[in-house]
Write a structure and sequence with these properties.
The protein is of the alpha/beta class. It has one domain: 2-enoyl-CoA Hydratase, Chain A, domain 1. The mean pLDDT is 86.
Length: 262
Amino acid sequence: MNALSDDLQAEVRDALEDAGWTDDAIRVIVLKASGRAFSAGFDITTSARVNAVERRAKYLKGKTFSASGWWDVFWNNPKPIIAQIHGFCIAGGLATATFCDLRICSEDAKFGAPEIRTGGPYIPAVWPWVIGMSKARELLYTGNLIDAAEAKRLDLVNEVVPIEELDAAVERQALTIAKLPAATVEYNKKLINASYEHMGVRQVIERSLELEAITLASQNSSPEIEEFNGIREKDGLKAALNWNAERFVDEDAWFKKSRERG
């Protein structure tokens, strides 16, 4: 499911830095995944008992003073990055895709932030800018999933195609961008980024990382988080995930039906 472990994040970051800043022959970057999903999010198989200072350092450590290293390598990359999405694109996987410049997905794609049901503020605080305030509130207050058609309606993705046409659709978009002067594309990306930075997007991203670190690392701050972590430590991660899934069985009825149809 391409969970974003520390090692995988480091490998992706190295590849993006090489493609973005080192190799001038590269015009466009495509981020795609093998297997049955784009990504199920950040790897949570390690211990949840981390203090707030350690967790904040993990999320915010970057090459600049206060920026998130993971976010910056997408946002500040001089090359446009296209996320090629299939299957599940949830939690930190969706955060990663949202940090890309364009998103093209297959019809089977599912999007959402289910981890907020036992966690802190969600990292892609850019959602109010991307999908609008009302829908951002709904998804970030519920943890519900949406399908590809709804993601397209919300402009969360640029294009939805049948799974067998996904490679071709992404390649077509990438080759079109590659025909433009590289400097023109880079400067247009800088201008678009600057417009959102003037609206405070960088400050909101960094604040969301801090709040998530504090919430997840503060014992007794939430009975739901404590219950989840208690089951996890006693019976394992799978048992904790099953406990959480049972709490939202009615809310997830649509998702389960859609998965059975698939």
